[in-house]
Structures are given as C-alpha cells and as structure tokens.
C-alpha cells in the first residue's frame, strides 16, 4: 500500500517537474531524428548498419537521462526533508525506493511512448515510411534499457547524501558502462589465458546492463554472428522458447538487486550516523 502511494505521488510530482518535459523534448527530437534516418534505408527488416547506429545512439543518451532523473529524484527528497516527513508514517526505505521506481518507470515509459508516437507522426507527415516493427522494436529496446538503468539510478540516489553526489555517481556509472566499458574489457581479457575468456565474456555481459540489453536485442534481430563463436550458445538460448522469459528474469533480478542494495546501504549509513 505504501509503495503504491509513493508511486502515485511520484507520478504527480514528475509530470509537474520541468526536468521531465526537458527530457521529453530532448527524447522527442532525438527519436524524430533517428527514425527519419531509418526511413531512408531501403531494407529495414532485421539488423542493418543503420539499426546498429541507432541502437548505439540510444545507448549513449537514454541511460544518462535515466541515471540523472532517478538518482537526483531520491537525493532531492533527502535534501528538502520530504523523506524525514514520509518516514514518520512508518514507511520503510525499501517500500519508498520501490514506490519511486514504479512512479519514475511510469513517467519514463510515457515519455518514450510519446516520443516514438510523435516521431512516427512526423515521419508520416514528411512522407517517410518504415515498418511498424521497427518502431515497436526501438520502443521495447528503449523501455528495457530505461527500466534496468532506473534500478541502478535508484541505488545511486539511495547511497548519495545530496544531489551533487547523485549527479556525480550517475555520470560515473554512465561513463563506465557506456563509454569506457569496451576498453576496460579488452584490457582485462588481454591479461587472461584463452581458456577462461569465454567465461569472462559471459560474466561481463551480465555485469553491464547496457551490454546485456544490446546483445540480446541484436540477437533477436538475427545479428548474433557479429559477436563471434564465443556467443554461439547465446544465439541458441536467446532464440529458443525460453530465451525471452530468461532475459526478462535477468532484467528483473538486476532491478531487484539494485533497489535492495540501495535500501541496505542507506539503512546502514543512517545507523552509523
């Protein structure tokens, strides 16, 4: 009950926040641009160079927006004293964080749905055509990416003492998982024997939410061969009957673990203080 109350409160506050509409405008412009680019490709079924480019562009922008939106939202609650007021109603930190995640999830999914719908309308008005499957694919891809990074952002906000720490933490996670992850992975793999490379590659994929969503999505588009023989087993299970349920389970575990870690560290710090 407390979780749903916090979620409803977050939705009301979120749609009154100027940050929400700033991000909405940015996402809409971005989505219009990439879909107009996509419409110029003759063949849009399956994975193409343009599809890969748009996925990479989404990977750069959306996680950053999500990390900043979620982490700062939690930190502001602490700075303004709203959390102290809410805690007088016997509200646990775990319930509070879950409520924030649910509320922000609704806001983000609404923003993405509006952005892709608006982009589709603009493309139609300009006489650009593209398969509906393309629009749906990118909406699902973006939604999964946003939901899993929202869980990470909630943990960052729970650990941070103020909005500046939340901003720095969000940007740091974005920089590590999006910008320098390939370089870090290559540097580590170069120091390891070949016999353990496959195992390390699998583990590293599950440790980076962006890579997890990207690789799964590309394999669903039939582009599993670009990852080489090390990912042959991935192609088998991703395209199998249980591929999607397993992936959804992994994403859910990521979100649950992040929120529980955030609540645990927040509670532990309060006890020390």
Automatic annotation (TrEMBL):
Q: Which Pfam families match?
A: ABC2_membrane_2 (PF12679)
Task: Identify the keywords attached in UniProt to this record, alphabetized.
Answer: Membrane, Transmembrane, Transmembrane helix
Positions of transmembrane segments: 21-37, 57-76, 97-124, 136-159, 171-201, 246-266
Keyword Transmembrane in record: yes
Q: Which GO terms describe its molecular function?
A: ABC-type transporter activity
Is Transmembrane one of the keywords? yes
Q: Which domain of life is it from?
A: Bacteria
State any GO CC term. Answer: plasma membrane
Its protein name is: ABC transporter permease
Species of origin: Cerasibacillus terrae
